[in-house]
Amino acid sequence: MTSGQEAALRGLHDRHATELWRFAMRLTRDPQTAEDVVQEALLRAWRDPELTNRSEAASRAWLYTVVRHLVVDRWRSAAVRHETAVDEVGERAVTDRTAEVLDRWLVTDALGLLSRQHREVIAAAYYEGRSVADIAGRLGIPEGTVKSRLHYGLRSLRLALQEKGVTAP
Prior knowledge:
169 residues, mainly alpha, Rna Polymerase Sigma Factor, Chain: A, Arc Repressor Mutant, subunit A, rod-shaped, RNA_pol_sigma70_r2, transcription regulation, RNA polymerase sigma factor
């Protein structure tokens, strides 16, 4: 760089640095960030040998454009958005179980509307995981009766849930 270009760039700095800092300050609202942006813009001007050949108005417009682009780039950067890279994905987030709790509440209410015999076989089969033969042996009734109570109990349960506004998927 020649001494004439260096003098022109110093003059550019002296004439525009304060105004550029104010402009960057309005955009960023952070003095340190505004200073960093102006410094980067002037460094780019230093690297651009054609800037000294432009008119004063063109040089000024170029500097303001560079400052604006640098601020936009900072806003878009991951560091500003507080994003960080990780090597491993952490544990999965705990899902909201509100729907599950509400479903259980609805089923419990609907089961309360069934007869004792129907509720008894449904609870044994679906909540305790017992087989038809096991339920029949525990209750002292034939297996066919267990199957019948399960069938009609589930049908009544479905109707009770429909009355509560639950629809089949």
